[in-house]
Amino acid sequence: MKWLRPIVGVTLGTWLLVGLGYPLVMTGISQILFPYQANGSQIRVNGQVVASQHVGQYFNQPQYFWGRPSATTPPYNPEASSPSNLGPTNKLLVEHVKARIKALQASIPGLKVSQIPISLVESSGSGLDPDITVQSALIQIPRVAKATGLSEGFLTRLVDQHVLGPQFGIFGKDRVNVVELNLAVYEALHPHQSS
């Protein structure tokens, strides 16, 4: 029975150190050094949380820019983050892509298939991607302008103001956060209702 006491002591000590102490210390450090990120990168409008900067939102209204398709059900469900797992020869994937192309062409008259960026018809790996390419935003301007009454020039400037460079300056391409861009559109339409 001599061996039982050290085993229990080491187990409890390890649990307290690794299971309780370490998470509390890391949480405290992150709250001090990175409070915005540690609390979910929340975007607030009039003091209320409306979104997270790093989780896409589902937009399908013509007056807003659309993000990447989401493979989650319902779309952009953070509790079900996952890719579609459909391969390039899968008939269901081909049907989804064709339906997305058709929806884009219906919403933007004259849009050719060759003009549609791949990121607007294929879902992201997480199903929660908040960003689209700059081209993906620019081709939607005619639809958003028609639905909102905002000029195409104004919307182009809005897109330009929301272009983010590559991640850490080296990974990927320039991109646009759809949630932040759509909040800017909302603010332009409702200047006295948001802050």
TrEMBL record:
<keyword id="KW-0633">Potassium transport</keyword>
<dbReference type="GO" id="GO:0005886">
    <property type="term" value="C:plasma membrane"/>
</dbReference>
<dbReference type="InterPro" id="IPR003820">
    <property type="entry name" value="KdpC"/>
</dbReference>
<comment type="similarity">
    <text>Belongs to the KdpC family.</text>
</comment>
<comment type="function">
    <text>Part of the high-affinity ATP-driven potassium transport (or Kdp) system, which catalyzes the hydrolysis of ATP coupled with the electrogenic transport of potassium into the cytoplasm. This subunit acts as a catalytic chaperone that increases the ATP-binding affinity of the ATP-hydrolyzing subunit KdpB by the formation of a transient KdpB/KdpC/ATP ternary complex.</text>
</comment>
<protein>
    <recommendedName>
        <fullName>Potassium-transporting ATPase KdpC subunit</fullName>
    </recommendedName>
</protein>
<dbReference type="Pfam" id="PF02669">
    <property type="entry name" value="KdpC"/>
</dbReference>
<dbReference type="GO" id="GO:0008556">
    <property type="term" value="F:P-type potassium transmembrane transporter activity"/>
</dbReference>
<keyword id="KW-1133">Transmembrane helix</keyword>
<dbReference type="GO" id="GO:0005524">
    <property type="term" value="F:ATP binding"/>
</dbReference>
<dbReference type="GO" id="GO:0016787">
    <property type="term" value="F:hydrolase activity"/>
</dbReference>
<keyword id="KW-1003">Cell membrane</keyword>
<keyword id="KW-0378">Hydrolase</keyword>
<keyword id="KW-0630">Potassium</keyword>
<keyword id="KW-0813">Transport</keyword>
<keyword id="KW-0067">ATP-binding</keyword>
<comment type="subunit">
    <text>The system is composed of three essential subunits: KdpA, KdpB and KdpC.</text>
</comment>
<keyword id="KW-0812">Transmembrane</keyword>
<keyword id="KW-0406">Ion transport</keyword>
<keyword id="KW-0472">Membrane</keyword>
<keyword id="KW-0547">Nucleotide-binding</keyword>
